[in-house]
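anyone seen this seq b4? input:
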Amino acid sequence: MKLLFSTFLVLSFVVIVSAQNTTNKQLLGNWQYTNQYGTSTLFFQSGNQLVLDGVPASYTASATVIQVFTDGQYWNYPYRLSGNVLSVTFPGGSVVNYKKNNSKTSSNTSIKGKVYLLNGTFCSYSGSSSSYSSYSSTTKVYFDGKGSFQYKSETSFSSNDGSYSNDGNDGVSTGRYDIKGNSIVLYFPDGTTGYADVYFKQDNGSISEIKYDGTIYAKNLCD
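predicted toks r here
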């Protein structure tokens, strides 16, 4: 009985390793995503090494998740492979559809469009209080990872005479954005242009804090 159980474990391990090897072979090569802002390149050099937009990293892959190892920890990237299309879900929920590029493209290709690195909801908060009144204001900005954003403000005020609040549901505005180096270009609906700075990045390259007009907007301020 013990021998049969050990044989079963060995065979199971062989099947798992074989499935992983098949998955890794399907991922090997150059994958590209292009939109109006530029091109992103995902290059699987081997079964455990990849390069994303010129940044190398170690990885492992199952049939549904790519685990990228950076700075001592793994980051999970769920994915779906259908023919020559590799759909990768980035942290924050944005999905990038890479297409297989069979030409010999350098993994160090200069990347112009990196809007996918900025996705999710960012918030700023300000407030004041005294013995007779209090005021708070929160601005929320949602970046879709594809070049569009939405923003709204929520305010509340209270005093001995009463209170007032505005949840911002009637004040949602939309715009477009681009990333150039460490600057974020914001194209507002009224035709004006603003510039924000990349204030903090995660180890995987995604942006988690930005600074606009002297104010910090961060994902963790939305909690």
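The chain has one helix and 17 strands. The two ends are 54 Å apart (CA to CA). kinda curious what u guys think
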